[in-house]
Amino acid sequence: MLEIIGLQVNHGWVRALRDLSLHIHKGEMVAVIGANGAGKSTLLGALAGLYKPAGGRILLNGRSVTGKPAEYMVRQGISLVPERREIFNSLTVLDNLLLGAYHHYRALKDAVREDVKRVLELFPALRGRERDPAGTLSGGLQQMLAIGRGLMARPSLLLLDEPSSGLAPLVVREIMAALADLKQTGMTIVLVEQNTAAALKVTDRALVMERGRIVLSGCSDEMISNARVQQAYLGRVRAARPAAVL
């Protein structure tokens, strides 16, 4: 579905992505993990049309979308749920959701109403809060709203940037369960996540990024047991060997 070939992205004089290549299949859910500054958010931003590549190609269903603006990417079925949610606090929950459907609202008003119902079914904690200002919601509900707004664009490829950031463990489990449900519908999902343990439980495959490159990839089940991933991202340190007895 998505193919990236030799992608390069610069932020000023800094090269954030370095000749990055990967292939994501339709219906696959992929975790992207790595330390802060590894280039994870830049990767999502480039796929969403927020950053113009300095080199390389982005192919969606075999067609080049390299360098296309964000509004074009949305119409092609790519939706980004940004880090820190970026909801509109003064608008109601419902208005935030409807903004996610801005590019097809007039043509598909009836379908948009059904999409709102589906979001509320996915996140029942939002039901009954539709007329509340979004800024009055808890952090967990705001994250659910941000994901729901992304879904209102009817994406075939959903990009999520740190959806568990700052949330309680129970809320994280709810959100990860919702993402697993979305995957069952056939949606393709790329999940950038610092909570590596939670991400590896729900994804098919994981990529580790360092300094703008993919340095390790594999099935999520295999990555959980990978010593390098355990030490760097799961907080598990190998026990030291006992000293030899002379």
Automatic annotation (TrEMBL):
Segments forming domain ABC transporter: 2-236
InterPro entries: AAA+_ATPase, ABC_transporter-like_ATP-bd, BCAA_Transport_ATP-bd_LivF, P-loop_NTPase
GO biological process: L-amino acid transport
PROSITE patterns tied to this protein: ABC_TRANSPORTER_2
Keyword Chloroplast included in the entry's annotation: no
GO molecular function: ATP binding; ATP hydrolysis activity; branched-chain amino acid transmembrane transporter activity
UniProt cross-references to Gene3D superfamilies, sorted A to Z: P-loop containing nucleotide triphosphate hydrolases
Keywords linked to the UniProt accession: Amino-acid transport, ATP-binding, Nucleotide-binding, Transport
Protein's UniProt keywords contain Nucleotide-binding: yes
Matches recorded under CDD domains: ABC_TM1139_LivF_branched
Similarity-based family: Belongs to the ABC transporter superfamily.
Name of the protein in its database record: Leucine/isoleucine/valine transporter subunit ATP-binding component of ABC superfamily
Gene responsible for this protein: livF
